[in-house]
Amino acid sequence: MSMITERPVHGRPPGVRERTAQVARPETRRDPIAVFRAYLALTKPQIVELLLVTTVPALMLAAGGWPDLRTLAVVLIGGALAGGAASALNCYIDRDIDELMRRTKRRPLPAHSVTPRAVLIFGLTLAVISVALMAAFTNWLATALTAGAIFYYDVVYTLWLKRRTPANTFWGGVCGAAPVIIGWAAVTGSVAPLGWALFAVVFFWQMPHFYALAIKYKDDYARAGVPMLPVVRSTGRVNFEIVLYTVLTVVASLAAWPLGLGPIYGCTAIVTGALFLAEALLLVQRTRKGGATKPMRLFHWSITYLTILFIAVAVDALV
Predict the structure, then answer these.
(1) How would you classify residue 65: left for phi > 0, otherwise alpha for psi between -120 and 50, otherwise beta?
(2) 169 with 207: CB under 8 angstroms?
C-alpha cells in the first residue's frame, strides 16, 4: 500500500492552509445538500445501521415478540442519535489523524467541509437529545447505558485507549456491544442472562471484524501513530487473536441458544458460525503462504454473519 502523507508541507508559507480552508468553506455552506451530506457523513450511517441491526432483535426478544411501538420508536431514534453523536464526536477528536489516513481523509473535517467547532456542537447536541429521549420515554437503566456508551466511546476509547494500547479494539468493544443491552433494558428495566450472552457475541465479534480492517489499512494506522494490533504485533499474534475471538464469538452464540432461543436460531448459529470460523482460518492460511491475505473478505463476511445471526434472533422471538 502506498504511503500518502497529508501533513502540511514544511516549506509552505504560514497561513496558506488556513486561508485555503476559509475560502473553500463558504462555497460548501451555500449548498444545503452538500452541508446535509457532510453532517450525515459525520454520524457514520453504516455503523449506526449495524448497531440497530443488533438492537431491534434484542428488543423483540426481551418483549417476547414485537415491543410496543412507542418503545420501538424511541429506542430506534434515540439509538441512532446516540450512535451518530458518538461518531461525530469521534470525528472531532480524531480530526488530526484522519488527515493522515487514506481511509479517512475524505471525511468532512479533513476535507474542510465543516468547522471543528460546528462538529463539536453537532455531536454534543445529538448526545443530549438522545439521552433526553431515553430518559423521557424509557427507564433509568437504558438511559444510563446510553449516556455511558457515548462517554465510553469518545472519552475512554477515542481520547485515551485508541492511541495508547494495542488492546484498544478489545476495550472499545464494550461500547460497540452496548446497544444489545440498551435495547433489552428499555423493554424490561433490567438485563437477563440471554441479553448478556448476545452482548458477548457482539463484543467478541468486533475483534476479528476490526483486525481484518486494520490489516488492510496497516500502513495508514502506522503513519497516524495508532497502535492497532497488526501495526505493533507480529503476524502470528494477529492470526492467533483473530482465530481466538472468532471461536469465542461462535461459542457465545451457541451459549445463548439454551438460554431462551429456539431451533431456528440454533441451526443458524451453527451454520453461520462454522462459515465465520472457516473464513478466519482461510485468512490465516493465506497469510502463512505469503500470498495476498485478502482481509476484507473476512471483514465483509463478519458483517453478513452478524446480520444473519440477529435476524435469526428476531425470527425466534416471533415464533
Answers:
(1) left
(2) yes
Contacts of 278 (CB under 8 A, 6+ apart): none
Q: Is 196 left (phi over 0), alpha (psi -120 to 50) or beta?
A: alpha
Predicted confidence (pLDDT) at residue 251 exceeds the cutoff of 90: yes
The position carrying cell 425466534 is 316
Give the Cα separation of 155 and 173 in Å (integer). Answer: 14
Q: Which residues of 135-152 are buried (b: 16+ CB within 10 A; e: fewer)?
A: bebbeebbbebbbbbbeb
Residue 155 in this model has a pLDDT that exceeds 60 = yes
Contacts of 123 (CB under 8 A, 6+ apart): 42, 85, 86, 87, 88, 89, 91, 92
- Residues 6+ positions from 11 with CB-CB distance below 8 Å: none
CB 176 within 8 A of CB 86: no
CA pair distance 275, 303, nearest whole angstrom: 12
What's the pLDDT at 10? 35
Q: What angle is formed at CA 222 by the lines to CA 218 and CA 224, rounded to 5 degrees?
A: 120
| Residue 12, SS3 per DSSP | coil
CA distance 201 to 179: 12
Is the pLDDT at 201 greater than 80? The verdict is yes
Residue 42 has, within 13 A of its CA and on its CB side, a CA count of 35
